[in-house]
Amino acid sequence: MHRRAYLTALGAAAAAVSGCSEGDSTGTATTTDTAADGTATPTERGTATPEQPDPDPTPSVTDAGLLLDRGEYATLGDIDSVGQGGPLVVGVEYDLPASEGSARGLVETRVFDDQGTRLETNTTEVDVVADGDSVSRRAWFAFDTIDWEQGSYTAEVLVNSDSYGTTASTEVAFDIVEPLGEGEAEMFLAEFPDDAVARENFDWTLGFRNLSDRDSSVVTGIVTLDPAGADPVALDSPYRENVPAGGAIQVEKTDFGINRPGTYTYEIARIDADVTFTIGPPE
Q1: What is the 3-state secondary structure of the chain?
Q2: Domain 185-279, what fold?
Q3: What is the mean pLDDT of the chain?
Q4: What is the pTM assigned to this prediction?
Q5: Fold of 60-177
């Protein structure tokens, strides 16, 4: 064989071998890298990345804060402290993901002091019918603060989805402060019937106005009813009312009755405030 013919045949054979190494049955291109010691290392390019599954739906807390009282969602966030002994009411608005026509979960609030010690936990279960991918809900959690010291606290709110095992959380910072005292609050008659008579029950509305510069509470267990010309009477009538700084609230009194006609002074000594009203003779 002539030398030129031999070299041509050898080149054709080499080209045939090189063409087989450019890809495989999957269409993956392969190149060859050479290491420092001269070792050839095949390197794949264009390998498809496996698709990651979508994450499970997660609840969301849309708002959280203190309420003036149980169920009063319109006051969410109106105060950031309560007087010692006043009700601590934490309100939360949230979205809970649904699965197969229902939304199930657990909402809880944990209260911690400034040292991180958990004081109390309140929970509520959720199991409602859902028309869409999620439901919007709200809840409140009440705590008695009579035995808590004045200071800074944190309420941790958690919304747990039973359907997906996911959780959302947020924190609400608040303070327990001195209850309202003398000169820091006033009382007023918001509503009182003109035809109130002795020996017949009636409804009326008492108002409290916070004259201080802090959100706090009217806290008392005793009210004095002082009839003109007679001895005062101590009534077991507890008040635990949160009042925003510079604001006012109203408290409804139902089925209130007095046996004797006359003019009366209704007084709370703790805040040194009173109101006066008149009861007519029985008809």
Answers
A1: CCHHHHHHHHHHHHHHHHHHCCCCCCCCEEEEEECCCCCEEEEEECCCCCCCCCCCCCCEEEEEEEECCCCCHHHCCCCCEEECCCEEEEEEEEEEECECCEEEEEEEEEEEECCCCEEEEEEEEEEEECCCCEEEEEEEEEEECCCCCCEEEEEEEEEEECCCCEEEEEEEEEEEECCCCCCCEEEEEEECCCCCECCCCEEEEEEEEECCCCCEEEEEEEEEEEECCCCCEEEEEEEEEEECCCCEEEEEEEEECCCCCEEEEEEECCCCEEEEEEEECCC
A2: Immunoglobulin-like (2.60.40)
A3: 87
A4: 0.79
A5: Immunoglobulin-like (2.60.40)
